[in-house]
Amino acid sequence: MELLTQFIDIVLHLDKHLAVMVLEYGLWIYGILFFIIFAETGFVVTPFLPGDSLLFVAGALAAIGEGGMDIFTLMGVLTAAAVLGNTVNYQIGRFLGPKVFHWENSRFFNRDALIKTHAFYEKHGGKTLVISRFLPLFRTFAPFVAGIGSMTYARFTIFNLIGALGWVVSLCLAGYWLGNMPWVKANLSVIIIGIIVSSLIPIGWGYLKSKEA
Prior knowledge:
single chain; 75% helix
């Protein structure tokens, strides 16, 4: 319970925690952020890691040159992490195949979420990989399901690159341009919560629609 409380505190006050990490680790922060984004997009068991809010806050810190961070280097490193993460997730899906649908629900694996993502993927095709970048949970499961569905690697790679660029660049630049405005800076923790909630709204809406159906 204490670890969960600490994790929630880190996510909700990411601006303060990340700023401290940047000052403490300097340019090594690129490697730390790379690992977080890679893990969040690359492994089915880590969809709980911060994604959207992390990109926004990192962009805001780069705007003031905190720890020597450069916005273009940041976007390049995190785009690479997002692309490689999805690629690993896709390859895991291809390796495991349909067997995953027989896994039992656990703390780290939600079979219902996987099945819903599969239905979403079947309906919308390759663009799911782009859209899902902006949706927690779907962002983690979509490349996995693409691998299970044996989507051709060339087609997967195209949508993977487009989605990664759109997601990383848009949120990092939003943080870079808006994160240090006086009002935004004074209420950054609230805005982080807003980003998390707003990114979950489409999932909640889809769930309600599916219950009605």
